[in-house]
Each structure stands twice: as C-alpha cells, then as structure tokens.
Amino acid sequence: MSTLYRADWILPIESPPIHDGWVLVDERRIAEVGAGPPPPVRNEATLGSVAVLPGLVNAHTHLELSGMRGRVPPSSRVSGWIRDLMRLRREGHRDDPLAMAAAVGELRRCGTSLVGDITNTFASFHALAASPIGGCVFYELLGFNHPRPAERVAEAAAMTREANRRAADAGSSGAGLPGPRVRASVVPHAPYSVSPALFREIAALAEAEQWVTSVHLGESAEEIEFLRTGRGPWRDLIEELGVWNDGWRAPGCGPVAYLDTLSALTRRTLIVHGVQLTDDDLARVRDRGATVVTCPRSNEWVGAGQAPIARFYASGVRVAVGTDSLASCPDLNLFSELAAMRRLAPDVPASRLLHSATLAGAEALGCAGEHGALSAGRRADLIAVGVPAGTTDVEECLCSGIQPDSVRWLA
Fold first, then answer.
1. What secondary structure letter does DSSP report for 41?
2. What is this structure's pTM?
3. Which residues of 309-339 are buried (b: 16+ CB within 10 A; e: fewer)?
4. Residue 411, CB half-sphere, CA atoms under 13 Å: how many?
C-alpha cells in the first residue's frame, strides 16, 4: 500500500531541502520525492511543521559499554580514562544485556537507522539483529604481543563468518525487505594495542573479504608520542599490563603513515576520532578514500581534546559522525553530536554536517544503496523532526540540538 507524506520540509540530503514537499512510500521503499502536485494516492498524511529526512547514521558506538553510563569520570588524558574504565570492568562492571537493549532503544528514539558498532563478544550483534536498526558490527581484536597472530585472526574470522551466516539465514529485515540488517567484520583496535603482525593479518583478511574496517587512530597526544618515540603513558600502561612486546620498535612516524605501511588504510577504512591528525595525515586519508569518524563530545570527555572539525572538512576527506559509548558520552543522540560540531565549526555549512550524519556515514559503512538519503528505491527509514512554524533555514535548525521527543518514525 502506498502512502504519501506531506511536510513543511523534505531533506533528500543529495539535493537541497524542499519546502512544502512530499515523499511517496510504496511497500516500505521510497517511490518518489518531490514538490508541487503529488501523484494521486488513497493514503495521504499531512505532517505540518516537521522536517522529513532519512534516519541518521551513528558510525561509531560501543553498545557493550552501555552499562558503564555515568560511571567513568571525565579525564585530562585518554590513557587515564582507559585506566579508570579497565579498573571498573575488573571490579565487575561487565557487559549488561539490559543496558545494551536499552541503548539500542535509545538509538532508535533519537532517529538512528544505522550504526557502526564495536564489539568484543558479539553481544551487540545480537542486540541489533533483534531491533529495527541496521549496522556493521566490528569484532575488535587487541594483542600487542600475541604469539600467533595468524591463528588469532583465523579464529576471529570463523566466528565472524558464522555470525554473518546466521544473519543471512534469518532472512529479511522484518520489514519485507531482503537481506540481513546487520553484518560483521574483524577490525584492529589501535596502534598501541595491536602488534604490526596482527594489523597485517587483519588487513589481509579485510581485503580478501572486502570488509569494512574500523580503527581508533590519532585520538590522543600520547598515541603520537608512542609512535614517534616508543615512550610515554601508553608504553607505561602496556608494561603495567604485562603485554609489552620486546621486539616492537617505534615506527617514528605519524599514525596515518603507520597504518599505510601495514596495508591497513583503504577506501573501506573508518578512522575513528582523528583529533591529532595533521593536514598531511588528512590528505593521505582523503587520497586513500578512507573516512574520518568524529565523536567530538566523547573526545572532550576522555581528554583527547577538541576535534578539528573545520580542518576535517577543509581537507576534503569524507567525514562521518559517531557518539562513541555511554561510558564517554551522556547519550546516543546524534543530533546532540551535530550541535557540538556546529559549536566547534561555526563556519561549516549545516548541509555538510547533516550529510555527515546521514549519507557519508552510510557510504562509509557500505550501505549507501539503502540508507542515508531520500530517493527512489532506498528503504523508507524516514524520521519526522518537529521544527518551529515559519522555519526558513531548516538545516541550521536541525544542527541546533534536537531532542528525542521531537523525533518520530514514519512508514
């Protein structure tokens, strides 16, 4: 059955906003988007003072840390924040299935249709598979001194392929649409927690499988010091944990160049955070076709510093947006992340910020054919966001800090 939605504003994302526009939905797919007289249909809904846009794409979350909400205090540097997190987890604050399910519900209430989530147990894979939200779940490996990296990656690959097989066997999205909503891949954590050999094995697997990958990179000044000199707080922590690798040598370069030497920087790579990346780093990321995923509220919470939002856009790199975890961010509302980006980069057009929170994220996760924009053939994952009557700059309004009670799902 076809349904026509009329609204004060329609945001296709791939083209400018349409005032007094409409979207025609047929069999849970978008059939047409336009302005002026629509085609005749039996079912029509006039929504009034709302903006209709595609569901948002939260390109970096840690749903398995949802039980840590409000437990890890802000820090002046990332290594200190990690220490606090590890201590609390050792004390018994482990993955909480109820908190994870609640976090998935929160994502949905905030208008999220697609996520890129980090998992260490596949628990979040199952939580997302039971929800209306689609996503890429990244099975993250750590191992700075793992003695058999090839075996470790082979084991992870087998688990990941099995998760993907089960998701495929489960069939459709539950919305009459073909294919699994959630799929998994194997990814490295960060340069200070993954050995070069393990990085290379993961990169080779990702290339063979054509998997999207994610890596925490260029997040902190401590990481830069560690890669250039082999010293600093990250080395201290690695030694405290008893996982130092005596054969490791500092590469003496920045994080992006290091990733490139390991064949781990491709067009399917999501570089998460990137707070410390230089202009040369960003140019290399752009030239490789990789994506920077910025999480500005989390960066400030953990002590990484302020994300250089304006430089990201000026570099020409693709920019996506994530909230990070509830251990380092007060909520999973991507609209609040957009407001933080607007605060940090007041001269970046609101249209580019919204593109990052929708289509750029969908492209980075390999899902742009289904998500991220309003056009014929894509999934009708539509949200209607209340805006003040008489709004003239709807894109700027949507970057001002929309709260979940102003968001509802259509179709």
1. -
2. 0.96
3. beebbebebbbbbbbbbbbbbebbbbbbbbb
4. 30
